[in-house]
Each structure stands twice: as structure tokens, then as C-alpha cells.
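Try this one yourself first.
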């Protein structure tokens, strides 16, 4: 009667010699990776409370850390508010198409998608010996310049120059309403 599964002889034949033979850790140029020493009752991986480097917990309000804390707060503010201003401005004010609004929303958050590459660049190419600070300053300078350009640019006239015209159905437009509508307003959204 056949036995389900591999037999013991079959299993021994399939094991590689390297997995059966005991190796010296230093043999062949390999260096052993040692787990940090733990104290009795301490779990493996809880080296100094899970810290990546020796020393105590950093003080977030210290001179060296307050900039990073401020950076994350402002990034959250910009990343949370800027995309949410697109719909009211482009859809309600300029009456742009849905595809224009969606494209603008994606363009605003596109730099956030490249943060991994910015991190690699800052780690591989330090500026004046610093890996983070110069890149943060360059990024915030670009952000401030772009926000100033957006604030200075004229926004143009709205699509509906009279707000109550928005509530009128298109078939019910009178010649007076048609004369008041700014049909060139959606092209302002392409700037």
C-alpha cells in the first residue's frame, strides 16, 4: 500500500549537503551576525528599548530636534490643506471639467510620491556634511516660492459672475444670463 508523502530515504536524498554539514561562522569569508546581548527576562530585539542607536530617548523640544518636529507639522498642514483648495477654486469658481480638477489634484500631491527618492538622494549626497538640513531648506524654499507665485498670479473672473446664476438650469438660461457667463474661465484653470 503506497504511503502519502515522501519517505525518509527520499527526504535524506533531497537535502543539500550544505544544509546538513555544520559550518563554522567565520568559514569562507562570512562574518556571523550577532544578536545584541539581552538581560535576563528581556526579549530579543528590545536593545535599549528598541532604539536604533545607543543613548537615551531624544528630547523632541531640543535645538537639534525642534526643526524636525516643526517640519512634520508644516508638511501635514501643506499636504492637508493645499489639495483641498483645488475643488472649490477650479470646480466652483472657474467651472473646470472634472478631468482638469482631478489632474490638478494629482499634480499638487505628485512631489510627495517621490519622497523615497529624495531620501535616497539626501543619504547618498550630503551637502556640506549634512544629510537632511540642506535638503529640507531647499525644499521649503521651493515651496515658499511656488506659494508666493500662486498668491501673486491674478486668478481671473469667475465663470458665474452672479452667484445666483449657478442655480439656474442650462435650458432656462436667458440672454442676460448668457451674456454674464465668463466662458473663458475654465481656461484659467490650465495655468
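Now uncover the answer:
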Amino acid at each position: 500500500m503506497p504511503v502519502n508523502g515522501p519517505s525518509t530515504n527520499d527526504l535524506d536524498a533531497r537535502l543539500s549537503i550544505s544544509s546538513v554539514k555544520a559550518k563554522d561562522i567565520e568559514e569562507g569569508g562570512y562574518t556571523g551576525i550577532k544578536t545584541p546581548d539581552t538581560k535576563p527576562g528581556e526579549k530579543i530585539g528590545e536593545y535599549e528599548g528598541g532604539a536604533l542607536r545607543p543613548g537615551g530617548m531624544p528630547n523632541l523640544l531640543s535645538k537639534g530636534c525642534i526643526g524636525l518636529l516643526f517640519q512634520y507639522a508644516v508638511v501635514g498642514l501643506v499636504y492637508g490643506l493645499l489639495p483641498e483648495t483645488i475643488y472649490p477654486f477650479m470646480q466652483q469658481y472657474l467651472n473646470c471639467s472634472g478631468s482638469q480638477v482631478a489632474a490638478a489634484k494629482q499634480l499638487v500631491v505628485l512631489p510627495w510620491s517621490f519622497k523615497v527618492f529624495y531620501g535616497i538622494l539626501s543619504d547618498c549626497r550630503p551637502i556640506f556634511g549634512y544629510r537632511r538640513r540642506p535638503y529640507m531648506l531647499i525644499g521649503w524654499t521651493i515651496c515658499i516660492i511656488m506659494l508666493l507665485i500662486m498668491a501673486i498670479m491674478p486668478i481671473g473672473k469667475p465663470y458665474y459672475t452672479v452667484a445666483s446664476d449657478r442655480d439656474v438650469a442650462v435650458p432656462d438660461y436667458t440672454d442676460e444670463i448668457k451674456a454674464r457667463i465668463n466662458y473663458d474661465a475654465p481656461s484659467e484653470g490650465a495655468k
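Discussion: The mean pLDDT is 79. Residues 64-188 form one domain.
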